[in-house]
Amino acid sequence: DQRSCLVAPLVAQHQPLGFLYADIEGAFGRFHDADGDLLGMLAAQAAVALANIRASAGLEAKVVERTQQLSLANERLSETQFAMERSGIAIHWVDAQSGRFLNINSHACSMLGYEHDEMLGMRVSDIDAARFSSSLIAASTSSPMKSVCEPRSTA
Asked: Is 16 strand, coil or helix?
């Protein structure tokens, strides 16, 4: 008994991915040149399909990884925002280039005399000094706690 076989490489984007192998026993005939051409076309299509499947699986893995990273970042942001709001001190997050308020806790809003949403649309240079002074005076007279800022001693 004779056997006839054909082998065609699976190549996509100049990267070898494998081989397509066809084998036939002599009782069923032999492969001819046209069979080789057909196997070559099938191999080319199979290589493209295989490359697409691998690329898709890679993208899916990246999406899962990025989703996990985003979830972790959101959790950290939520924890940071929780701590920021409950710190008991005025906190302002300001963009260094534009001077725009990125986040402000309620203590900062009260101290400056503005609503939260109002401050998010402002820059540091937009703060009204007179309004700030009156809010600070009102806060200091209504609170039994006093805050004093003094230079640190170097001794």
From this structure: strand
Tokens representing 152 are 């640190």
Residues with Cβ < 8 Å from 44, sequence gap 6 or more?
Answer: 11
* Token pair listed for 128: 């009204």
Which pLDDT tens digit goes with each residue over 12-39?
999 999 999 998 887 677 888 899 999 9
For the stretch 81-95, pLDDT in tens is 888 888 888 888 899
Residues 108, 90 contacting (CB under 8 angstroms)? yes
- Identify the CA nearest to 3 among candidates 32, 30, 25, 35: 25
Do 8 and 39 contact (CB within 8 A), yes or no?
A: yes
Task: Compute the Cα dihedral for 59, 63, 65, 69 and give only its sign.
Answer: positive
